[in-house]
Amino acid sequence: MTSRISHTSFDAINAYAQSVFWSQVLDFVEDPDDPNEPGHEECLITSRDRSQLLLFITVPDSKTVKNRPDDRCPGLTSDYRGTTARSAGARDGR
Length: 94
Prior knowledge:
By secondary structure, this protein is of the alpha+beta class. The chain is built from 2 helices and 4 strands.
C-alpha cells in the first residue's frame, strides 16, 4: 500500500496573508467554493491540478524559531528562487 500526503499545514500569525503570499509565489489557487478571506483562521491553497494542498492555520503564538519548510526546488538556482520570492513581496533574510 502506498501512502499519500494529503496536505501540508503551516502555523501563521495571519493565515490569510500567508495564503495570499504563497499563492502568488507558487501560482496556487484557493477553492472557489470556499474562498479565503481576511480573518479566516484556516486558509487553504492548492496547486492548479489539486495535487498539492497547503493549509495555513492562525495560531496565537509568535515563536521566532520553528520548523521551516525546505525551499529547494530541483533545477532552480537560489538566485532564481530569491528573485521570484522578492517579486511576490518577500524581504531579504526571511
